[in-house]
Amino acid sequence: MRRGLGKMGLAFAGLVALAACAGGEPKLMNIRTDTPDEFRILPTKALEAPADYTTLPEPTPDGTNLADPTPREDAIAALGGNPERLASGRIYAGEQSLISYASRYGVPADIRKTLADEDLAWRQSHNGKLLERLFNVNVYFDSYKPMSLDQHLELERLRAKGVWTPTAPPDPQIPVQ
User: Residues with Cβ < 8 Å from 86, sequence gap 6 or more?
Assistant: First the structure.
């Protein structure tokens, strides 16, 4: 009996030591699935036949297809902008006031790298407890909970200030009556 208990204790200590040696980028969403991810499939635009087949351009290896999705250009067009301006990289007179307001506190050049480094540090310090990592428990929501907004508390705050707020999304923990 003691011999079996000692072996189990030794095996558990080995597992703990092995889990402590894990390095690299922390994975907070421990989800394993063998099914395809439907959110990775992008819908394409409708196929169109060219007006003249003799004037088609030569295909390029890394070129774009007319049926490929262009989400940035589509969003600019949907908001009333000109998608052709996106390629030029120029700032036009009507856009200058928006850019000035958005960058009124300064814009660091390396903001994406800074945010990625800060997020990596946050995920490393909130990587879950030993048994959560050992059994691949999803700790994503617990890790980012301090950064989430309490929608009902914010709704009460805004309504107390007299801000018109039509409604708030239902809370999944509170049953709808």
Answer: 72, 73, 76
User: Model-level pTM?
Assistant: 0.45
* Least confident span in 30-39, 97-106, 141-150: 30-39
C-alpha–C-alpha distance, residues 40 and 27, integer Å: 19
Dihedral in degrees, nearest 10, Cα atoms 59, 64, 69, 74: -130
Q: Which residues contact 143 (CB under 8 A, 6 or more apart)?
A: 28, 122, 123, 126, 127, 128
CA distances from 65 to 24, 50, 60, 116 (A): 37, 13, 10, 32
Amino acid in the structure at residue 124: Q
